[in-house]
Amino acid sequence: MKYIIFVTDPPYGTQNSSTSFSFAKALLLQRFSLKCVFFYFSGVYNANYMLSPAVDEFNIIKSWVVLKKKYKIKLYVCSSAAYRRGVINDQTALELGYSNGNFSSYFEWFSLNELAFLIHSCDRIIQF
């Protein structure tokens, strides 16, 4: 089975981001195919590398990066949703007059159109 995970909630404040991470990890451990994790709406905050959880809290952002590196999965972020929420790369930050952006280089910009094409090659899409 081929899956896409669709994350729409922020990394902290709800359980959905950590639940989606646990689900992704379980899929991969069971040797299912995870085509990508797509972050949309407030889920784009998962790509903000400047978020800093308390020392005793689970660092979901670093965990997504570890999962990406270990299993070679794609972490896609809706570019327009991210831009509206201030999650921007260095180039956009400079264009807006800021010194640097907050978009993690381990994530990739992706559009809803691109996601639509990717969905056609999957068996399941799971939203958190």
UniProtKB/TrEMBL annotation:
SUPFAM superfamilies: DsrEFH-like. The keyword Secreted does not apply. It comes from the Bacteria. It holds the Pfam family DsrE. One of its GO terms (molecular function) is sulfurtransferase activity. Its main location: cytoplasm. It is found in: Cytoplasm. Keywords: Cytoplasm, Transferase. GO terms for cellular component: sulfurtransferase complex. GO terms for biological process: tRNA wobble position uridine thiolation. Belongs to the DsrE/TusD family. PANTHER family: PROTEIN YCHN, SULFURTRANSFERASE TUSD. This is Sulfur transfer complex subunit TusD. The gene is yheN.
